[in-house]
Structures are given as C-alpha cells and as structure tokens.
Amino acid sequence: MAPPLCVVCKTERALIKRPKNHQKLCKGCFIQIFEDEVHHTILSSGLFYPGEKVAIGASGGKDSTVLASVLKTLNERHKYGLDLVLLSIDEGIKGYRDDSLETVKRNAAQYDMPLKIVGYDELYGWTMDQVVETIGKKGNCTYCGVFRRQALDRGSKMLGIKHVVTGHNADDVAETVLMNLLRGDLARLSRATSIVTGSNASDVKRSKPLKYAYEKEIVLYAHHKKLDYFSTECIYSPEAFRGSARTLIKSLEKVRPSAILDVVRSGEDMARLVPGQTQDPCACKTNAAPAPSAAEEDNGGGCGSANGRSTGGEMAAMEKQLRENDKAAEEKLETEITIPKSNGTGDRSKPKEPKASSITVPIMKQKLGSCERCGYMSSQKLCQACMLLEGLNKNRPEIQI
Ligand SMILES: [Zn+2]
Ligand SMILES: [Zn+2]
C-alpha cells in the first residue's frame, strides 16, 4: 500500500509519523516544522540578541549536534546575527569521550564553527577515568555533572562568551520535573523547567532551545538531515533514580504521546506557584527572566551528552530501524516507512500561548557568595566541585593536602 500524502503539503508522500502528535508528514515538511518550532521557542522567549556570541555545549551526541545544525540554519535563515562557537568538555573517559570529540571536530568543520575543548584534567586535576578508579562506578555521574556545569561556565569565560546553549530536550526536562516532584523539591522545579537559567552571581547565562523538542524527533531530524553524530552511550552507569524517571517518561509516552510536553508544562505551571520563582513557558511578549541560582542545579545530571542515557537502548533501536527503513525504501520504493508504534492520541504539538493571567512573581535575590577555594559562585563555603575534589584528593595519597 502506498503511503498517504503529507498532511501539510499534500503533494509529497508521508514517510514520517511525528512522535509528538502522530501527524503524517513528508521528510521536507517534518524538517521545516521541527526548525520552525525551535525558531518559535527562540523568538517567544527572547533568547538571543543580534550580535550575541553564543557557545554551543557540544558533546558530539545527537542532541547537541542537532542543536548546532538547527541554530546554524536558523541563524542564516532568520538573520539572528549570532556568532556561534562550539564548546566541548573533555571529561577524560577513554573509549567514549575521545571518540565523541572526534565527532565534534568534524562538526566544527562541517558547520564552519570554531571549537574550544576544555578538559577536566586541566580544570580539576582529575579525569573521570581517575575519579571512577578512585570511587568506583557508583555515583560517578554526580561528580561528572557538577564538574561539567562549572567546566561549561569556565570554558565560556575563557572565550569571553556569556551565553551557553545546551541540547537538553523535552524528555530531559520532563525527566527532571518528575525527579524533583518525586523528591518533593519544588524549588528545583523552576530551574528544571526554565528555558533560561542563570545566576545573579554568574554572568554566564544558560539556555535550552530544544526544550520542547522530543528526543525521538531529534533522532528523526538527525537521521533525515544525515547529521554526523556519535551514538555510543557513556560507559559509566547513570544515576539509578534518573534512569527510573526516564523509564517512566518513556512508558507514559507510549500510551500518550503528549505526556512528555504535558509533564513539561505541568512543571512550568507548578514552578510558577513556588514563591520567589518566575516562569514563563512561552513569553511571547517579554524576555525570559533567568531562573535564580542555577549555579549548582542538577539539571541534566551527569553525562552531559544527554545521549539517551538509560534509554539509549530504545533510541539505538530507533536509529537501527531508521537505517533499515532507508534500505527497504531503496530496495522497494512503495514500502511504508514507520517508526515504532504507540497507541495514544493527542494533538497538542504547539507550545501553549502564555496565559493572560499568568502570575509573575519578582525573582528573589538569592544570597550567593563564592567558593573560598576556587572563587566559583556558591552558597556554601566551598562549591560543590571543590567539596567533591576534597573527598577525592583525600583518597589519592600522592597529593594529599
Ligand atoms: Zn509535506
Ligand atoms: Zn570551588
């Protein structure tokens, strides 16, 4: 049976069933819609200003590769006037990061963007391989996450850049919302859902332009745009709680595709109720205010590649199926191309317009000092990285302090 026509252009055959709402689209319309939605997110939250220098946190994984590709496309198409740079963190994980960094180097050439690589070894005196050797595999994602956050900040400072964008997608945000909900940590919800995070004490702003993009659509986009990315997962085990939250999100998506965006929006709504926090999911009229003190947020956890983590298996299966579909399509043109099925319904693909009555609470100034040891912003005497390092260094006899 020949595939039906694309519901948008009504001329091309629909080869893609959109994971977000099951719309049947041709390849061209899917790519266009994906880019338009990211453009809408960027415009509606006033994410950039003309001439801004922006560092893209690039891991070589699908999320940041798609982010770099889409930003390059939109920057040229809509004349954002952005100066885009790739910023990569080398955690020092043999067989994982060294390979993915090769991908980033190729991306830099493909997208004609400068690339800066900052290593954990030069920043902290420890590679992740050494950390794992010392503390074991359990809990290593905590170290990696804390180190990564500071590393991106420090790397962008080295480049004189005040805005870092990361490839966090809707699945990542939904996962973090659930985790904070399950922990009863509403204060963190705001940081998890906010498109812009920053801190009064830091002049480096963070944002996630792919916040409303489904992970499955990112895989589809990367596939159909034939992007060069690295799809091996971090070799060290992810945090168990995060893995469970992710599995839950994916199960919900199977029976109700809109569940991911629903959780993101519920997170935004709940964050608005937290005193001292402000949230505007789609601030069409105003600039997005940074959520306070994201200095030590756990958004995205470790494995900053956001590379599928515990559900890497599912994403890998999807990638494999896409490749097989391509092969089948080449061999037999009339083969319908589908992606793994799910049964739910839901047609809420568009980001909600902001509610007229949305409550905006002024941001409470948080008292943030700086770390006694390294000067990085911190509400404690020592920042999280220095606290972790203190523990690590105690366990390394040759450099005991
Ligand atoms: Zn079409
Ligand atoms: Zn410190």
Automatic annotation (TrEMBL):
Places the protein is found: Cytoplasm
Annotated spans, Disordered: 275-359
Positions annotated to bind ATP: 57-59, 63, 89, 167, 172
EC number annotated for this UniProt entry: 2.7.7.-
Organism: Apiospora kogelbergensis
Known role: Plays a central role in 2-thiolation of mcm(5)S(2)U at tRNA wobble positions of tRNA(Lys), tRNA(Glu) and tRNA(Gln). Directly binds tRNAs and probably acts by catalyzing adenylation of tRNAs, an intermediate required for 2-thiolation. It is unclear whether it acts as a sulfurtransferase that transfers sulfur from thiocarboxylated URM1 onto the uridine of tRNAs at wobble position. Prior mcm(5) tRNA modification by the elongator complex is required for 2-thiolation. May also be involved in protein urmylation.
Entry keyword set: ATP-binding, Cytoplasm, Nucleotide-binding, RNA-binding, Transferase, tRNA processing, tRNA-binding
GO biological process: protein urmylation; tRNA wobble position uridine thiolation
Residue ranges occupied by any Cytoplasmic tRNA 2-thiolation protein 1 C-terminal domain in the UniProt entry: 369-400
Gene Ontology cellular component terms for the protein in this record: cytosolic tRNA wobble base thiouridylase complex; mitochondrion
Pfam families hit by this protein: ATP_bind_3, zn-ribbon_14
Recorded superkingdom: Eukaryota
Domain tRNA(Ile)-lysidine/2-thiocytidine synthase N-terminal: 53-233
Protein name in the entry: Cytoplasmic tRNA 2-thiolation protein 1
Lineage of origin: Eukaryota, Fungi, Dikarya, Ascomycota, Pezizomycotina
